[in-house]
Amino acid sequence: LGRFCIETTVELAPYVHYMSSEYFVEPDRFLPERWLRDGSALNIHPYLLTPFGHGPRMCAGRRFAEQELYVLLSKMLKNFRLEYSGDLDMKFQVLMVPDRPTSFTFKDRL
Ligand code: HEM
C-alpha cells in the first residue's frame, strides 16, 4: 500500500466509479440494459461491480442473497404494478440510500 502504515483503513467508494464517464456511458442515466448478458451490453469491466466483495473473503451468502432477490423481485413484479410519486434523491451513508422517506403504491395486476 505504498506509504500507508499497516493500521490504515482503506475503503473503496464504488459510487465514484459508477458515476464516472471513464467507465460508464451516460453514467447518470437509468439504463438497466447496460447490464444485459446477451452480448448487447456495453463493455463494462467485470471488477467494476463487486457488491459482494471478491476473493477468498468475499460474501459467503452471495448466491443465497441473489436467489432471494430474484424470487422476491419476480413475485413482486408479477403480482403488482409499483408506482412512486414525488421527488427522490440519494445521499451517502456508507451505502447510497434515499434522501427521504419513500412511499410506494403496490397496485394489483389484473
Ligand atoms: C444483497 C445482500 C448481500 C450483500 C450485498 C453482501 C455483501 C457482502 C460483502 C461486501 C462482504 C465482505 C466481502 C469482503 O470482505 O471482501 C460480505 C461478507 C459476508 N457475507 Fe454477505 N452480503 C449479502 C448477503 C449475505 C447473506 C444473505 C449472507 C448469509 C446468508 C451473507 C453472509 C456473509 C458472510 C458469512 C460474510 C463473511 C465472509 C468472510 O469473511 O469470509 N451475506 N457480504
From TrEMBL:
It comes from the Eukaryota. Gene3D superfamilies: Cytochrome P450. Keywords: Heme, Iron, Metal-binding, Monooxygenase, Oxidoreductase. The keyword Magnesium does not apply. Its cofactor is heme. Pfam families: p450. Heme binds at C59. InterPro entries: CYP11_CYP27_families (IPR050479), Cyt_P450 (IPR001128), Cyt_P450_CS (IPR017972), Cyt_P450_E_grp-I (IPR002401), Cyt_P450_sf (IPR036396). Transmembrane segments: none annotated. GO terms for molecular function: heme binding; iron ion binding; monooxygenase activity; oxidoreductase activity, acting on paired donors, with incorporation or reduction of molecular oxygen. Belongs to the cytochrome P450 family. This is Cytochrome P450. It comes from Magallana gigas.
